[in-house]
Specification:
2 domains, Rossmann fold, 27% strand, Alpha-Beta Plaits, four-stranded antiparallel β-sheet, 345 residues, globular, alpha/beta
């Protein structure tokens, strides 16, 4: 079995901070004596990512997402732990490492502010040692997908957020890296611009098998792009699995809705239908079934309804729990566990 493209084992990153004293006397005291404390931004995090995966890495502000990405990019040194990206330790062989990764930070730019967008890309191509022929070929592809032509002669400082982000993606992929790190790539963009970026990322992942780690606060983006999710909370990894596993772990119910050809009587009872772990509710031409974790599989419930109502069932809808509610539930469980551990310590 091939080695994973990215392997993180027991990663820890600590920062030293100090509390500033108030007032002039406090500021003078800080100049000669500061009381430092260590803060763990990333606390014993481990995961592996296979080639071609697109993984969502989510968490609240300050949870440790960006710190993890910066370690993977080689920008930060870890306090302890092991990180291998495409066969290299990022911070030990940075020059070779950056030739094999792409990175897009939504609030930081790799483009030159006063240069035209096209000239910025051409300069980056020289830095990455992309030949003129390769540059023209790749730019033609980016122009076709991202529609860059209309603003390549415009200075970067005059680009809209959406235009700038399209250029950032082109810049990150000019040297055809096998790994792409995306830290809040659609922050501040409108709906149309976000959708354009998502379509591009999907296409690059599918056609080139580029491995991607995406951090974002837009959970709809995770739903649209990523089959796997990592959740970090206060520096600790609290979930690693598929979206389906996330929902099944965190949610108490799934609701099935059946639209019928005739209205149900107010006194209707779910005779002959599964009852354990299922709450039935008739509502005119519709009947809903809320399935808890103790309920039979949804396929069994659907089959039972079809057997009872036959051709009178016109439509079936499955209402999965909202991803925002599921993630919030994960955070709450993590918070409760941390509080219990602190109390027992």
């Amino acid at each position: 079995m091939p080695e994973p493209l990215i392997r993180v084992a027991n990663l820890v990153k600590e920062f030293k901070t100090y509390d500033r004293r108030s007032g002039i006397l406090g500021a003078m005291t800080d100049l000669v004596h500061r009381e430092y404390k260590s803060v763990r931004a990333v606390d014993d995090v481990s995961f592996s990512i296979e080639r071609g995966e697109m993984v969502g890495y989510i968490g609240a502000n300050g949870a440790g997402k960006s710190t993890t990405i910066k370690v993977l990019c080689g920008i930060l040194f870890p306090t302890s732990g092991e990180v291998i990206v495409d066969g290299r330790v990022p911070w030990q062989d940075r020059e070779a490492h950056v030739q094999r990764i792409g990175a897009v930070f939504g609030q930081r730019s790799q483009l030159w502010w006063d240069l035209a967008a096209g000239e910025s890309l051409r300069l980056l191509a020289q830095i990455y040692e992309v030949t003129p022929a390769q540059f023209e070929l790749r730019m033609a592809e980016f122009n076709r997908i991202l529609e860059l032509d209309e603003f390549l002669k415009t200075p970067v400082r005059k680009l809209s957020l959406g235009q700038k982000m399209r250029c950032e993606l082109a810049a990150a992929l000019l040297h055809e890296p096998p790994v792409l790190f995306l830290d809040e790539p659609t922050i501040g963009l409108d709906v149309v611009a976000k959708q354009s970026i998502r379509e591009f990322l999907r296409r690059i992942n599918r056609e080139r098998q580029v491995t991607m780690i995406l951090t974002t606060h837009d959970l709809r983006e995770i739903e649209e792009l990523c089959a796997r999710v990592l959740i970090i909370d206060r520096g600790k990894l609290v979930f690693d699995g598929s979206l389906e596993a996330l929902r099944s772990q965190a949610a108490d119910t799934v609701e099935l809705r059946f639209r019928l050809a005739h209205a149900l009587d107010a006194a209707w009872q779910p005779d002959g239908l599964p009852r354990e772990g299922v709450a039935w509710k008739p509502d005119g031409f519709e009947i809903s079934a809320s399935l808890s974790k103790t309920a039979p599989p949804r396929t069994e419930v659907i089959r039972a309804v079809l057997e009872r109502f036959g051709k009178d069932v016109l439509d079936i809808a499955i209402a999965e729990p909202e991803i925002e509610a599921v993630v919030q539930r994960i955070y709450e469980v993590s918070k409760d566990q941390a509080a219990k551990a602190k109390k027992s310590a």
